[in-house]
Fold:
Amino acid sequence: MQLKDLALTSPDIANGTRIDERFAGEVGSETPRMVVKGVPDDAVELAIICHDPDAPLPHGFTHWTLYGLPAIDGEIIPDVGRPGLNDDESFGYVGPFPPYGHGDHRYYFWVYALKRPVRGEPSRDEFLHRYADAVIEQARLVGIYSR
Structure:
């Protein structure tokens, strides 16, 4: 796996800064826009995962899984992808909703450039287990949120 050119940015979330409330779970869970650049030429698909490792659960909490995205530079269009299972057993983006007073949580938005397509709608754990060998490159953007 290379850690070279792939980059993930967002016009809605600056890396390392607080996530605006309109993208949080208590306000409406608007899906933040994501932009990918530097997709490797040999990638056949992109996947997006948003995960909160600070959630008070053994493996954190996955807020978004999205597969089947075209392997091209540009803005991610969620309707083009295929949502996978989140940790609340829903599909599609679920905004940050940490426990009150639990402090800052980090929300890792990962993009994965893959050398083979993802089949089905796996959870984050299933994806990482089944497709780790297919990851050509990955990049992340981190947002912060607390209540």
In short: The chain has one domain: 7-145.
